[in-house]
Design a protein that fits this description.
This protein has four helices and no strands. Helix content is 88%, strand content 0%. It is mainly alpha-helical. It is extended and about 60 Å long. The protein starts with a helix and ends in a 6-residue tail after the last helix. The relative contact order is 0.06. GO terms for molecular function: L-amino acid transmembrane transporter activity. This is Amino acid transporter transmembrane domain-containing protein. Keywords: Amino-acid transport, Membrane, Transmembrane, Transmembrane helix, Transport. One of its GO terms (cellular component) is membrane.
């Protein structure tokens, strides 16, 4: 089954698209829902400036990682961390990824809880505090 080139191509393509969808939903869910409050707290001028500033920093850090990967000929971030830092780098990458995913899930659960509590209270007799 795995030796079939068509199956391997479909499997790799579906993994790529599921990764893209998961990362996009995480970023869009946490950022877009929090953006109005951030702009309200900072004001339009400072908020837009900070938005572009952190977008620029994100771009620079990604370009830096890609250049490091090209330099040492590694195309996997985990392997890049292991090659540059050693076994501790690979461990650090895995722990930081788990923490990132945990934090993203916590923020999504908070958002879902805030959005569902109001409508759910109208269908039940309990009150939301």
């Amino acid at each position: 089954m795995y030796g079939n080139p068509w199956y391997r191509a479909v499997l790799c393509e579906s993994e790529l698209w599921s990764c893209i969808a998961n990362l996009t939903m995480t970023a869009v869910g946490a950022v877009v829902l929090a953006l109005p409050q951030c702009l309200a707290d900072t004001g339009w001028a400072l908020g837009v400036f900070l938005l572009f500033f952190f977008a620029y920093l994100s771009d620079r850090s990604l370009v830096f990682l890609v250049r490091c990967g090209d330099y040492v000929r590694e195309d996997d971030y985990e392997k890049l961390a292991e090659r540059l830092i050693g076994a501790k780098g690979k461990w650090l990458f895995r722990v930081s990824l788990c923490l990132l995913l945990f934090a993203a899930l916590c923020s999504l659960l908070i958002i879902i809880g805030d959005m569902v509590c109001g409508p759910a209270a109208s269908f039940t007799r309990c009150t939301v505090r």
